[in-house]
Design a protein that fits this description.
It is a single chain. The chain is built from 11 helices and no strands. 9% of the residues are buried. The longest helix has 27 residues. With 227 residues, it is mainly α.
Length: 227
Amino acid sequence: MANNMKEKFDKYWGDPQKMNKMIFISCVFDPRHKFQSLSFALAAMFGETTGVKIQIEVKTYMESLFNVYAKKNGGSGSSPSSPSSGSCPSSPSSPGSCPSSPTSSTSSSSLSKFMLDLKKLKNGEGIDSKIELDKYLGEDVEEDFENFKILGWWKLNSPRFPALAEMARDVLAIPISSVASESAFSTGGCILDPFRSSLTPRLVQALVCVQDWLRNESTTPVKIEED
């Protein structure tokens, strides 16, 4: 039993290269630790060389994941006031005509492009898309005190880190488990043989019929207590 548990543990946790990087990223999302505690823990567990290598891989993976969230937050939707190409606003003086004005069209196109680039820059799609991540990692770690609530911290600081807050919400909600030790110590398989753990066709038919009778509202309700 112990050998089976050790084999299953090594399958997911034995080799640091096979471990899911989300486990380390969840530690980075703890404002009390970030990469400061992670780098120390990796060096203590796997050695200085391997620890630095894993830390670089975690940071690269986190940056690529953050770019996905930043692009999703900034690239959704379009400006409702920007006119579509090929459409012409109707004017009261000439309702059926569309006047051609190359100068006006060019200036409008340039303005629309400028506003679109400005919107991308504000939403984190420009060259400064990593400022939010660098700002979070560059700040000092929070003081570790009793009853510190990580989700409460991210909710309070979500206006400062909108993309990171959404990313932290998804990452910290992932359930984690090491080894299913309950199945190793369970004796249910020894007690319930295939015969005792199965239902015969006649018993299944009886259960289905009884359920149908109990749920049928058109007839008189069955008084279970009296019966």
